[in-house]
Amino acid sequence: MQIERDAFEQLKAWKASSHRKPLLLQGARQIGKTWLMREFGKREFEYVAELNFDEMPELRDLFARTKDTKRLISELALYVPVPIVP
After folding, report:
1. Is residue 20 a contact partner of residue 14, using CB atoms and an 8 Å limit?
2. Is-contact 48 41, C-beta < 8 A?
């Protein structure tokens, strides 16, 4: 499917960038964003940590409390079953 290939190519370009920033994937409801991110994670990374701020509202508080990346990573690690590798 062309749309899938285009989306994967854009995500792969993001991954390859030496100056990449955190990725936010936005779009209409029920168009495959979650599937795309899970599939991209499986194909392109050894570990995938999925954090759903709708299902875990306490994560919003964590980001409101601190911007210290080391602290964020150590606290986020408590919510996922895989290591978080910066």
Report:
1. yes
2. yes
Pair of tokens at residue 69: 């990346």
Q: Which two tokens stand for residue 35?
A: 């599937």
Count CB-CB contacts under 10 A for residue 40: 20
- For every residue of 20-47, DSSP letters joined together read --------STTSSHHHHHHHHHHHH-S-
Distance CA 61, CA 22 (A): 18
Q: Which amino acid is at 79?
A: Y
63, 36 contact by CB (below 8 A): no
Q: How is residue 65 written in tokens?
A: 């409390």
| Crossing angle between the packed helical segments 69-76 and 58-65, to the nearest 10 degrees | 160
Instruction: Report pLDDT digits (tens) over 20-58.
Output: 888 888 888 898 999 999 999 999 999 999 888 888 999
Q: For the whole prediction, is pTM greater than 0.85?
A: no
